Fold this sequence. Notes:
Blueprint: H1 7-20, E1 28-31, E2 37-40, E3 44-48, E4 54-60, E5 63-66, E6 75-78, E7 88-99, E8 102-112, E9 117-126, E10 132-141, E11 147-159, E12 173-176, E13 188-191, E14 196-197, E15 214-219, E16 222-228, E17 240-243, E18 246-259, E19 264-266, E20 270-275, H2 280-292, E21 308-310, H3 320-332, E22 337-340, E23 345-347, E24 350-353, H4 362-374, E25 378-383, E26 387-388, H5 393-397, E27 412-413, E28 418-420, H6 426-442, E29 447-451, H7 473-492, E30 497-501, E31 518-519, H8 526-540, E32 546-550, H9 561-564, E33 569-572, H10 590-606, E34 612-613, E35 626-632, E36 635-650, E37 659-664, E38 669-675, E39 680-695
Parallel strand pairs: 21-22, 21-33, 22-25, 25-29, 29-30, 31-32, 32-33
Antiparallel strand pairs: 1-2, 2-3, 3-4, 4-5, 6-11, 7-8, 8-9, 9-10, 10-19, 10-20, 11-18, 12-13, 12-15, 14-17, 15-16, 16-20, 17-18, 23-24, 26-28, 27-28, 34-35, 35-36, 36-39, 37-38, 37-39
GO biological process, one term: carbohydrate catabolic process
Pfam families: Melibiase (PF02065)
Protein name: Alpha-galactosidase
Amino acid sequence: MKQPSSRRAFLKMTTSLALAAPMATPMQALASPGEAVVFADDRLRIEFDNQMRSRIALVTEGKPLWLTGFDAGETLSLVGGHDAILFALRDTTSQAINDRHGPGRQVRLAGLSGQGIEKTLTLHQYARYPGVAFMQVSYRNTTAKAVAATGWRNGAHRLLPPGLQPGGSVPAFWSYSGGTYADRRDWLQPVKAGFAQDNYLGMSSSDYGGGPPIADLWRREGGLAVGHLAPVPELVSLPVSEDKGGARLALTAERDVVLAPGGTFDTLETLLAVHAGDYFPALDAYRRIAADRGVRPPQPSAASFEPIWCAWGYERSCTPELIEATLPKAKELGLDWAVIDDGWQKAIGDWVVDPAKYPGREADFLKLVGGIRQGGLKPRLWYAPLAAAPGSDLLHDHTDMLLLSKEGAPQLVTWWNSFYLCPAYEPTRAHTVALVRKFLGDWGFKGLKIDGQHLNGVAPCYNPSHNHARPEESVEALPGFFRAIYEAAMAIDKDNIVELCPCGTAYSVYDFPYVNQVPASDPESSWQVRLKGKTLKALMGPSAPFAGDHVELSDGGDDFASTVGIGGIVSTKFTWPVDPKPKDSFLLTPEREAHWKKWIGLYRDKRLAEGLYRGDVYDIGFDKPEGHLVESGGRYYYAFYAPRWSGPLTLRGLPAGGRFQVRDYVEERDLGLVPSAHPVLTVSFEKSLLLEVSPA
């Protein structure tokens, strides 16, 4: 049922459609008395004026909370600066739909700009995703002359300042940004005066780039997320900025397009999502939408949740003797994995054992692997694909694998002083798969630690020997490169672990179907451990195997609470019985050993990493103290964090009815009973408080 109509006929048509196809989240697309077109469900309301500008509300208890004013959300940038911004609304249509996302409704609006550009805006909403709008924008040149465009923007809105401005140092807005930067900044940031971040999803420097294609702004009452739903990485931006007490976000792209007379151009499918609380519900909705489309992380095995010891505490000077001496202590503390980290190889790109450390070469290396197994631990191997050092045998023999810039120069991987290889070039993939088969098949490792900030994104490749149809093929091929690694690993043993650690970057969601463990990836604080855990549980699933990374990277180098409390896997790089480094020692002293043993024991006992992370319960930006909740085994595990706290805590998320016993499971003390109708405790703590709450 799809037929043009006047606004009055349109109102009649959509009303009859709503009656004919009732849904759990009824949707509307109708003309209001003020000449606005309304697109709404029971959580989201979008109104369009007669120039196709829109304003967005979060609906709570049936009432709209206006997050934005009327903005020109979808515009086309034209050569000469006379952009197509306002479009006189000419037509609207509506129809019921039922596709891979379930039942829903489609509304189409069409309008014409003063430059003769017709904009068609198609909106979808689904009962499965209340509060989410799917948007497709198409432009058509109705004039007799060609029109040149330089880019477009979708979902461009200014969020209005809060009605009641918070006092003190509390920001008006918080932001989630998916962009990657070499300074490894926080993914979550308060939006202070002058805040601006471009969030380009290509390369922001030679070896940093990529990230989730979604950005979010929220104030205390709720927020708005904007992103794209393309099936491959795209070179677009998600700029976020402060604006005179408000805040702006958008999806933008620079594209040189010439529209011939009658020619059309489609932008990327765009997502708009409103939410109460912080950004977690919007990212969780994005994950579920991607899963509907076949992009979902694999089901993790039990091995994905086992605690980890990594030899990186010894850094590149690590020797097999140092590893062998440490293994008994790792086993005694309750750890299951032993990771041989960077330094075992001859060179980056030459993935053969270093004869200076292993005089017997593979025989000595296999002896070490066998010793790990005999010690009751599982061996995992560090590996940095897509990088090759100058002077390596690989580059000497295979310069054809290089990813080259437009000028014909190699792309630098800074940390290892190496060059990028192209993931879209078949010989690169074949070489990588052969190595994975050697590591996991011939050498007997049970997992890979795939490492490097260069692995989150790559630049367009102009190597003429690759015969790319477009330079961007390298960007789009990176997920397929990881798929080849993952499938090779699973073909050997479905319980193998493929860990991806893209060193401080924002993670590419397109790689998630091909990894079964992700760490906090070189966190620079305990705050980063927790915000990365919350984000990755949103993007991968509430029981995703997220590791807090080496606890030595947390505040004080010993903050297990920030990993255990949010449902993370514990990991450590302690050294024992000696640490040959004169400084930056990670030696496990007797005092530290008691601390490590206690927390590793708590992790194994509670197994919260396998529980259900409830990221929608506490607002990580505005709630004080910072709160997290994990459900596991019929119990509720709360984690609160603050430098110092004394006062009431509300235990949100408990089921109605009955009373609940509260216990501090770290200090082993009972804190009494709370009723579900008023689950409030008055407590004091420093740094963290972890609670186990069970039905009484």
